[in-house]
């Protein structure tokens, strides 16, 4: 029964002085990219390591397709992971590195060239690992994680060290893998990238769940007041009108200002009534970064 769900149930990890993960529960669905987000020290890496049985939970459990990773008969077919940019013997070529991993896991050699192709490393397959850039190492890490053709992929900060072209490539690859029905769980600090990459997000802070759900729902369901960006040559008049209407206005760089508490139609009406000329009037959609900061404010204890 390889349904590809990751189920985290009441998972807790206590170290001597810190509870890294605190009664955390969430479900990650197949066929979707799920972003795993949280401020520094939130417990993301510890959670991913517990899912992969690299760290033993203090209590609770995590399963992939109903199995604990350590109980999987063929772990590399159940889930592939990169927890840090891949490490290989410096003098070994990417191809030889993958062949050794494949052989150790009883996987066919043919998978090696297939995965090198998938990540665009075929031209560099015979180069030694010591000359690889960070971006190439990330690609090799993905090739390694994909060797067993796993139903589930778990990636900790895979965009680290990638240039814009690399990030775009990674986005296409991960979205494509989810479209094939795989489960893709990816942690990242890059909120704007997550907003375009992820279908769902799980947000944690201080080891606990803050929220989970489809990105659109989380971004759209924020409690924030409407925000409108404007540019006007009649700033003094606009500031007075906005304040009289009970809203606030702040400079936003580039001659523009952001009004909080009024949507674009309301600002348009105010301007019309006051004979105020507008050169720009834009609804500022809340973005994932805003919602994230709002939801995790005060919970980002430095620890
Ligand atoms: N082996 C360990 N021993 C003691 N404390 C640990 C250990 N591993 C993690 N921690 C602590 O657990 C907390 C969570 O760490 P974790 O690395 O899981 O967070 P994170 O969300 O991945 O953070 P970041 O985004 O900064 O990588 C931190 O306070 C960290 O210092």
Number of domains: 2
Encode the helix/strand succession as letters.
EEEHEHEHHHEHEHEEHEHEEHEH
What quaternary form is this?
single chain
Give Rg in angstroms: 24 Å
Strand content: 15-25%
Indicate the overall shape.
elongated
For the sheet with most strands, the description reads: 6 strands, mixed
Task: Name the structural class.
Answer: alpha/beta
CATH architecture of the largest domain: 3-Layer(aba) Sandwich
Largest beta sheet: strand ordering: 5-6-7-3-8-9
CATH topology of the largest domain: Rossmann fold
Protein name: ABC transporter ATP-binding protein
GO molecular function: ATP binding; ATP hydrolysis activity
Family: Belongs to the ABC transporter superfamily.
Domain ABC transporter: 6-231
Write up what this structure looks like:
Helices cover 34% and strands 25% of the residues. With 303 residues, the chain is an alpha/beta fold. Helix 3 (94-104) crosses helix 4, helix 4 (110-118) crosses helix 5 and helix 9 (235-244) packs across helix 10. The strands form 3 sheets. It has a 6-stranded mixed β-sheet with strand order 5-6-7-3-8-9, sandwiched between helices. The two termini are 39 Å apart. The mean pLDDT is 90. Adenosine-5'-triphosphate binds at residues 15, 18, 20, 38, 40-46, 303. Adenosine-5'-triphosphate (ATP) is lined by residues 15, 18, 20, 38, 40-46, 303. Residues 6-231 form the ABC transporter domain. This is ABC transporter ATP-binding protein.
Write a concise keyword list for the protein shown above:
alpha/beta, Rossmann fold, Alpha-Beta Plaits, four-stranded antiparallel β-sheet, binds adenosine-5'-triphosphate
């Amino acid at each position: 029964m390889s349904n590809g769900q990751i189920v985290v149930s009441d998972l807790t990890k206590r170290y001597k002085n810190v509870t890294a993960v605190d009664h955390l529960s969430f479900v990650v669905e197949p066929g979707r990219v799920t972003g795993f987000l949280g401020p520094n020290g939130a417990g993301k890496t510890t959670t991913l390591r517990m899912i992969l049985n690299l760290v033993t939970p203090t209590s609770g459990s995590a399963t992939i397709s109903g199995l604990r990773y350590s109980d999987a008969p063929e772990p590399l077919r159940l889930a592939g992971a990169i927890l840090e940019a891949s490490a290989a013997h410096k003098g070994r070529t990417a191809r030889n590195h993958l062949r050794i991993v494949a052989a150790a896991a009883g996987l066919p050699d043919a998978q090696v060239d297939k995965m090198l192709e998938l990540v665009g490393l075929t031209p560099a397959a015979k180069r030694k690992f010591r000359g690889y850039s960070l971006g190439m190492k990330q690609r090799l890490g993905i090739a390694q994680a994909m060797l067993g053709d796993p139903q589930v992929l778990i990636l900790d900060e895979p965009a680290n060290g990638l240039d814009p072209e690399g990030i775009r490539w990674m986005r296409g690859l991960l979205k494509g893998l989810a479209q094939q029905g795989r489960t893709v769980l990816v942690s990242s600090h890059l909120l704007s990238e997550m907003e375009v990459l992820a279908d769902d997000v799980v947000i944690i802070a201080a080891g606990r769940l803050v929220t989970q759900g489809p990105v659109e729902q989380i971004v759209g369901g924020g409690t924030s007041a409407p925000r409108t960006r404007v540019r006007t040559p009649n700033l003094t008049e606009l500031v007075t009108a906005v304040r009289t209407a009970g809203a606030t206005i702040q400079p936003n760089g580039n001659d523009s200002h952001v009004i909080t508490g009024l949507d674009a139609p309301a600002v348009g009406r105010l301007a019309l009534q006051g004979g105020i000329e507008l050169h720009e009037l834009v609804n500022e959609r809340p973005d994932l970064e805003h919602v994230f900061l709002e939801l995790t404010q005060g919970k980002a204890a430095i620890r």
